[in-house]
Each structure stands twice: as C-alpha cells, then as structure tokens.
Amino acid sequence: MDGHRIAxxxxxxxxxxxxxxxxxxxxxxxxxxxRLFLVGDLARIHPEMERHGFTQELLNRAxxxxxxxxxxxxxxxxxxxxxxxxxxxxxxxxxxxxxRAHGVVSMGHTGAAMVASSLVIGKLEGVDRPALASVLPNxxxxxxxxxxVGANVDCRAEHIAQFAVMGSxxxxxxxxxxxxxxGILSVGEEDGKGTDVxxxxxxxxxxxxxxxxxxAEGRDIWNGNFDVIAxxxxxxxxxxxxxxxxxxxxxxxxxxxxxxxxxxxxAGLLAKPAMKRFKKKLDYAEYGGAPLLGVKGVSIIGxxxxxxxxxxxxxxxxxRAAEHRLHERIQERVALLLxxx
Amino acid sequence: MDGHRIAxxxxxxxxxxxxxxxxxxxxxxxxxxxRLFLVGDLARIHPEMERHGFTQELLNRAxxxxxxxxxxxxxxxxxxxxxxxxxxxxxxxxxxxxxRAHGVVSMGHTGAAMVASSLVIGKLEGVDRPALASVLPNxxxxxxxxxxVGANVDCRAEHIAQFAVMGSxxxxxxxxxxxxxxGILSVGEEDGKGTDVxxxxxxxxxxxxxxxxxxAEGRDIWNGNFDVIAxxxxxxxxxxxxxxxxxxxxxxxxxxxxxxxxxxxxAGLLAKPAMKRFKKKLDYAEYGGAPLLGVKGVSIIGxxxxxxxxxxxxxxxxxRAAEHRLHERIQERVALLLxxx
Lengths: 341, 341
What we know:
Two copies of one chain form a homodimer.
Chain A: E1 4-9, H1 18-30, E2 34-40, H2 42-51, H3 56-59, E3 62-66, H4 88-97, E4 103-106, H5 110-121, E5 131-137, E6 143-147, H6 157-173, E7 181-185, H7 196-206, E8 211-216, H8 220-223, E9 228-230, H9 233-258, H10 262-282, E10 290-293, E11 298-301, H11 308-323, H12 326-335
Parallel strand pairs in A: 1-2, 1-4, 2-3, 4-11, 6-9, 7-8, 7-9
Antiparallel strand pairs in A: 5-6, 5-10, 10-11
Helix pairs in contact in A: 1-11, 4-5, 6-7, 6-12
EC number (chains A, B): 2.3.1.274
Pathway (chains A, B): Lipid metabolism; phospholipid metabolism
Function (chains A, B): Catalyzes the reversible formation of acyl-phosphate (acyl-PO(4)) from acyl-[acyl-carrier-protein] (acyl-ACP). This enzyme utilizes acyl-ACP as fatty acyl donor, but not acyl-CoA.
C-alpha cells in the first residue's frame, strides 16, 4: 500500500468494534492519504463492515488482518508476551515492527498497548522509558502536553529530561506549536523548589536547544502558560485521573443543579447549546488519544471510553505523526541529551 | 482567659486586616466558648475595631497583642527565624508555645506559618514532618482529607504512614467521621501498584488500628470513596494547585458561555441561584482552612484569598480541634507507629 499506513486495534475499547470501525470509516473518508490495517477477530469484524458503510472505494485503502485473541481489562499488561501473543494489539504492533505499518492506534488496555509498543515495536536508542503524553485542553483554548501520565514510577532526572524533549518534539511536529514552552512540574516557580530529581532534570534541559522555562506548578497544567510539562509518571497519572474525576464531578453537579426546579430546567434548556460548545472545549476526544513517545514508530493510545469521533481523531494524530516522521525527529533530539564525549 | 483560646494572625492574608477582623468578630458572636488573641500591628488594628462591630461584650473575650512586623508574600518562609522575629505569625505561634493559646490561625504566608508552627510551637514526638491537610469537598457531598499538600518533598514510607494516621485522627475528631476510610495515593488500586515508598507505607498501616483500605487513585480524591488520602507533599501540592486551577477554569468558562447571547444571558439569570448553591458546595472556605498536623498545638493555615467567612470557619476548625485536644489524640496514635521493642 502507498501513503501512510496505520494499524488499528479494532477490538480495543469499551465500544469496540463498533466505535473503532465507525471511526476508521470516517478517517478513511476524511484523509485520502491514509491507509489502514484493521486488526482483530475477522469473524466479528467482517459482518460489521457493510453496516458501518465501508464502500469498495474505502476498502481499497483498508486491509483486514486477523488476530484470534483480544486483551480484556482484567488481563495483565504483560499477557501479550505469553498467553495472548495473537491478540489484536500485539498483531497490530507487529505490523509496525515489520515496517508494514508506520504506526499503531489502540483504545484498548493501556498497559498492554504500552507493553506492545515498547517491546514489540521497540524503544528508540537513547530513550530509557517511553512516555505516555496526555494532550489537555488549557484555559487559553490551546493544548498543553503533560507527560509522563503512563505510570512510569520512580523516574530519574534523565528520564524526566527525555520526557521533556520528546514532548517538545511532539508539540512542534504534531500539534504545530512553534517553539513550545517547556516546563518541569514542581512545587514552586523558583529554581530552588522541587526534588533533587526535578532540579537535576532542569539542569540537563538548560543545556538543550529547547525553550525551557523552568519549573511549572500544578496550576500551569491548565492556565496555558506552558505548552509541555514533564513529570514523573506517578504524579502525572495521579493528576490526570484526579482531573478527569473533578471535571466530570463539576459538570454533573451543575447538570443536577439545573434539575432543581421548573425555572432552572427552563434555563438549562436555553443554555444547552452554549454549554455543549463549552464541554466540547474540554473534550479529550478532540485531541485524539495519548501518544506513547520514545518507540520506533507511531503509537497512539486512546481512552477506553472513546467513541467514533475519538477513534477518528486518534487516527488523525497517528497520521500526522507518521507524516512528520515523529519518531525520527525524537531520535535526533534525544541523542543530544546523551553524554557527549 | 477561660474557654478555648485561639491566636489569630490578624495581618495575614490578601484581605487583611479587614477580612480577619470581620471573621474574628463573627466567630466571637457565634461561639461563646471562644476567646481570641488578635495579633498584629495595633496601630493598624485599633482604629478598625469599632468599624468591624467589636462591642464591649465581644472585647471581653478578645485580647490584642502587638507585633511590629508582617510577613509578606515575597519573604522567605524562614524569615520569621531571623529578620522577622516580631512578625504577627511568629508572635501568634509564640502564644501557643507559652501555653497561653491552644491554637493559631493564619491566612498569611503558608510557608512562614508552617515554619512558625513546626519550629516555634514545635513538633510532636514521633512526628518527623508536620503535614498540611487540605479538606476537599467530594462529589458525595462530604469532606475528603488530602495530606500532605504542604510540599514535604521526598517523603519516606514512615512519613506517609504518619500522614495517614494524623489525617485519620483529624477526620474523626474534627470532622466527626466515624471510622474514616484511609488510603494511600497511588497509580492503581492493586496492592502491587505504586512505588517502594507507597508499598512500605501500606505495610506499616496494615498493622495499625485504623480503617486502612489500601491504594487510592487520583479519582478517589473526588468521588467520596475515601475519607483520608495520604501522599508525598510533592504530589499533594501539585494535585491541589492543579485542581484549584481546573475548577476555576471550568466555572469561568461556563460563566463566559452564558455571556454568548441574550438568550444564554437570560438563562444564566434564571439559573443563578442554583449555580450559586452548587458553587458553595465546592467552596474551600466552607471547611475553613488547612490544618497543619503534627505540632504541639492547633495550627490552621487558611488560603491567602480567604474572606471573612473563610476566616470565621478557620477559627471554628481551630476551636473544634482545641476542644477535642487534637494534638494529644494524634500523639497517642502516632506513638503506635513507632517501632515497638
């Protein structure tokens, strides 16, 4: 196949295979340069294809690849190495390893997708730990990249420095930000604030040709003062899960407060379109999944709750990353972090 | 003076001395058992007293104490040890040290208030690091205590275990929760998830007679599944600042979306009382400041932006903690964490 080739784990996600097939079809319609491998249980996928509007023209750019197994939420992330070698996520990653696909997209088991990407596709030279990056909508209307959110616990300074560099390349190449402002998450703005790890990571980044602006604080994740914020995967994971729950809680609480009386119900009805537009701004689905940075190919891991739109946008992110040869750009920049003799 | 005696740093906070004096007056009116030391620059406080409605009856339960200096935001936390020995926060803490007051309340420089409490009032035996606890409104309508949020970085397992025990005592004695559910913040529910520090802290807590329910995740800070969540002060600080910014951003964004058109403005007008009631639920001022746990007395540190209501509620929290002899209860429980020979 010509064009940019993305392997989609059709079986991954809470609404698979419907949301994944629907998203795949929309993506093929939207981007003529896209080619897809649709990976999964063909006995389940085949009967759905027509229903989801895959015309012959679209099928010319989609190749079905069978995988007999599916990773489920109860599985361990490492199951793909032994018990589930023929799982859809592993087969999709294998296509990237063999050079048949440029990238993989999965909405399934995050841990399994990370293991498949790190071990089957493989890590880039100079990257100790691939990092999962979350692209968050900030209050200035732009994206802020927070990484690692993939639970890389006990990070050393060089890991955090690598996260920062990889995030900076992603923000430039895929999000189109010019000279993204990069920070390290800490407990105060001043250079002296933080742990030995954050201070050493800062020292490394000051030597780099990135726009490093020192310590970022918790509030900077949302206020748009930074484009990229690097942190230990423990902190990133906690902040991300906490933020999802808080935002959901606030929006649900507001919805409930509109149900209080006939008057507020009427008000809610009038305000609905405006509130819907606002919620769209906060919608993680807009940015299409979290890239796993630091592997020898493109890997986008979506939220389990992804709907068709989120799948389509994750495929778009993978396509852009492939077009910009993201992992080669990362490789070049990370090499500059290595001790020079 | 009889009753429970609280020293208020009248000069601390963005709206001092007005918000602090107003809050003090309201507190004196509300709780007849309360006696206050009003600490600060008497040249500034004196002329304000009458304006803020301090009647002779109230003044019988308030004693003015002069302090010639005030800690400002630009100061270092440690300034109270050298350059600003006569600052209002230090003089207030000194009253606790001397046994004249049971507790101190300050809305000023958080770091300075922590240093004054830890070093002037002094740490409890068996407590390595006093912890700042944030009492957050959860989505079930109750409080969740998150600690440490005071930037105690690089915590060891015993520190986090101490935080958990102290938080549990606070939830029982001051918030009135029976057998509070205690967790340690980590990156997954399963016992195996987390760092060596969180796992060791969990092992310590399993030996204790508290209701320890294992790992809490980021979302558990808001969903009401735990009453007390202990974490490293780095993570706690980042989560707290991030949450404040996110909640503010969402509420501002919604307000803006109500300004879009005449229809949405009308809707906003109709919904205003309901939204106001909802915002009140989220209002940190309701719970009245963050207790610093692990010192030999009561110490409540409020948000710099505290208004009179927040000051009054912080005084109420200090009063309750004093009534329940909080620090003695903490001392007893923390002693059980010490290695028994």
